[in-house]
Amino acid sequence: MKSKITVLIAASVIAFFALSAIQGYLVYNTYQLEKKAFIDETKKAVEELDANKKLDSLYDSWGDQLQLYLADYKNLRIDKNTVIQKIKAKATELNPAFYKEFRDQLQQKNIGYQLKVKKTVSSIVIYDEKERDTIFKGNGENQLTIFGENFSNREANEITTSHWFTEYDYIKQEGDKISTSSLGLDVKSHDWILVIDWRSIIFKRMGMLLLGSIVIFLFVAVLFYNSLQKLIKQKRMTAVKTDFINNITHELKTPLATLSIATKSLRDEKIKQTPEAFENSLSILERQNTRLQKLIDQVMNNSLSSEKIVLNKEYVSDHSYFKNLISDFELSIQQQIDIYQKLPEKETLINIDKFHFTTALFNILENAVKYGKMNSEISLKTSIKNGSYFIQIEDKGLGIPLKLQPYIFEKFYRVEKGNVHNVKGLGLGLYYTKQIVKAHEGSISVKSEEGKGTLFTIKIPLNL
Ligand code: ADP
What we know:
Layout: H1 2-50, H2 53-74, H3 80-109, E1 115-127, E2 132-137, E3 144-148, E4 157-174, E5 177-195, H4 198-205, H5 207-267, H6 269-273, H7 275-301, E6 314-317, H8 318-332, E7 339-342, E8 349-352, H9 354-370, E9 378-385, E10 388-395, H10 429-439, E11 443-449, E12 453-461
Parallel strand pairs: 7-9
Antiparallel strand pairs: 1-2, 1-3, 1-5, 4-5, 6-8, 9-10, 10-12, 11-12
Helix pairs in contact: 1-3, 1-4, 1-5, 2-3, 5-7, 9-10
Bound molecules: adenosine-5'-diphosphate.
Adenosine-5'-diphosphate binds next to helix 9 and helix 10.
């Protein structure tokens, strides 16, 4: 049974994490799809802008200038580097017009987010009948930006790649000889866009989905946690109740067996003849009867919660109350025991239901005796602090392991397990004590060290 529940819990935990991973994967996939859709949409919008006559004519005039510089190059007036320098300068000159036109178009389109564009050239090659000559070649980041803004290609998206092929005539000068020659030109260019803050735009678009996923995930996590907690609690309760049934059977057996022996002995002629023996059997009957009554009372009281306890409070003097309490207790346990008492010198009136409060303190004192070592000290000290009355009962007995301390006020809980006890009990005493203290609007706490002893502190408000 125990291992089955453990397997169930482990399987649920694994299933929960697997589900979370699937959910995470689905959200990630949606993000990727959204990203692609967004980029496609932006590309389309910008492509439309790109097919603009004014922008085209700016590129054309840059191209015309390039052709002239290339002619100079062919005539050995300038070298490749100078060609590049010069066409860069031309681009810089044309760029404000390009930039303005692009911005105006973008504004008209009302695209809804900010973007940057640029046009780069990655290769310029010239050729004639004899040879091909590469004027410029640049890969990746190393391209020639001619129009637009300067930004890294890594974050950007390339929307178009195009080749511009042309053949044109130029005047060739070789010494004094002047002729017309034809030159082929191939310019490879790229259009790039960079959407500013594109990640947050996608996240905004996924807003509902993300929010929904997070809410559902949290909801399932809380539900899962609660169910697991309930399962573990129920599992513990079942074990505790089984223990209780074992305990009560054990507790009832002894007085019943004694009762039956004592009743039989009363029928015995010899005992009838001896008044002392007869009286002894009768008092055994009486004692066992009282014990059974006490047991039944405890079981009956276990259904009482603090709200159901009806108190009949009165003001009593702490000095006389605790004095009587201790002497009654010493009498009731029929054992020689000394309880050390320490009360504040000044008498104080405490507002309690004497009957219930005494039961609560008796339960703690009984435990101090039950779980104390032989002849070990028990002390009862009281004090007043910040408008509250504190009662501390301490023993130097077995103590309670730290990790079990939170459970001792629960119904049916006993530190010893099973029905083989050295110490009798039903696990109800402290539960009932706590309910009584709560009904008095007070609190109870425990401090204990295994093998050293236990200290219970009850705090009740004064002047109520
Ligand atoms: P019980 O009938 O078992 O005494 P209680 O509710 O009074 O039930 O106490 C719950 C458990 O707390 C006990 O079974 C015992 O293991 C532990 N306990 C209570 N008081 C003491 C104490 N003074 N010293 C050691 N253990 C204690």
